[in-house]
Design goal:
alpha/beta; FAD/NAD(P)-binding domain; globular; binds flavin-adenine dinucleotide
Length: about 500
Amino acid sequence: MSDYDALVIGSGLGGVSSAALLARNGFKTLILEQSDAVGGCCSSFQLQGRRFDTGATMVMLIRPLEEVFRRMGRRIQDYVDLIPCEPIYSVRAYDGRRFSMPADLQEAAALIASLAPEDKDNWERYAHVGGSMIELLDEMMLKPANTWAETLRAFWEKPSIARFYPYLLRSAQGVTLSLFRNQLVRSNLAFQAYCAGSPPDIAMGSLVFVALCQHLGIYYPRGGMIAIPEGIVKAGEEHGLEVSFNRKVERILLEGKETRGVLLEDGTEITSDIVVSNVNAKVTYLKMIGPENLPRWAIKAISSYRPSMACPMVYLCLDTRPPLDAHNTIGITSLEAGNRLWHEFYERGIMPRESGFLLNWPTEADPSLAPEGEHLLNLAWGGPSPYALLGDNWDRLKPAFASASLEMLEKEMMPDIREHIRVLEVATPLDFERKLLLPQGGIYGLFLDLFSSGMFRPRNRSKVVKNLYLTGASTGLGGSLPTTLASGIIASDYILRDHG
Ligand SMILES: Cc1cc2nc3c(=O)[nH]c(=O)nc-3n(C[C@H](O)[C@H](O)[C@H](O)COP(=O)(O)OP(=O)(O)OC[C@H]3O[C@@H](n4cnc5c(N)ncnc54)[C@H](O)[C@@H]3O)c2cc1C
């Protein structure tokens, strides 16, 4: 008799969604989380009486989140209060221009027509094509596409996907140049594709439509980003789900080629026939399973994946309202500068002195996160942040990085910002690696391109270890809130099919 029907390693969004759905379906399920909080990259933490978000700062494409609650027989609004953010983002462009993007597509079209009259019709075409593509993605995201057969079936069921090949098979730069003539419009869309982890000349063309997804709504959960995984866990606990914190899994135990449980860092063994790993797939296979238990081809295949981009974060609390007008403000580089930052800096291990940025203002949506009158900001440099720095390391660079970040904010937003700081904290790629065990601080698990997504990414149902399932950013469509929630749904579907 095993201790549990299913053990889930890690409480990131992929972990909590798969675990809650297994509990809902009668599996005695335990989540083992090495840190002291739920959510991984989608979490929040207390610092000097303020609640900051660890990594992710907003959610869009909420269908997978709604689907998790729907399958639990629950209503999302009873567990998570999603506050809509409008305008969806505000832009500070490389050429000094500033604008705020309304969610409404007609208003957005009017804004584009005023900024770039030559692209008025092109924007409408982009919105039309992108709208149908996002509708299709929303549906397909929840379907497994781990194998050739599953992928071909998905394409067979949705032949309309062929319309999108010109966008899917080219780089983000290729798509942007083919769609638009205006440099500012091109750079805005290419920059947002860049935030998914690679420069415009490498990023997948489909990522140019990330900017459009935001027009379907972006939301901030009341109580901070942790409210999303907490809501899922709460619904799971109503079906018997258990969560245990400060419990690091060291090894996945095998009997022959099948899982039989896990070994914790403190030497405790917990048995279960089914093991779900929400941990980076390279760590899962090469450390927790061990190369001695894998065929040579599998070691070669899993070793070939590169980690995704790292992203240091600056957490700030100000004693005054910042001069912003949107939950998200993005400082965009030109398309060419985006490529240059990657190839001349990131790939050579150099932190650039200038970059684009993403500035998030959570207290605009939820003032209760900080004492009255104070405001929180999360700053991420948009673009390359190498993990391994040439001739330096992040522990040494941290103070200089904090100072460079403040210089950027002085220039872009608030010349007297230093006088208003109540709290300042920086999380470097090394901190993310230590706190969340993200290899090389990679915020999206593994690097994402056409040949490392979908069926080319590690599978949700392991091919080499029976009853091992993977979920999270290193599977399926990669990192982000909707894709990791979808991966949790898919992993639980496989388990229900195999063991239900
Ligand atoms: C700085 C930053 C900004 C981001 N911004 C956005 C955004 O705005 N929008 C968006 O959609 N996405 C964003 N993302 C990406 C998104 O947050 C992640 O892709 C997603 O949350 C990852 O979910 P996951 O299921 O892969 O699990 P993870 O979040 O990677 O969680 C894995 C969990 O496993 C635990 N764990 C690891 N090893 C062990 C072990 N040995 N034993 C037990 N537990 C273990 C970890 O502690 C962690 O809690 C951001 C990420 C970061 C870091």
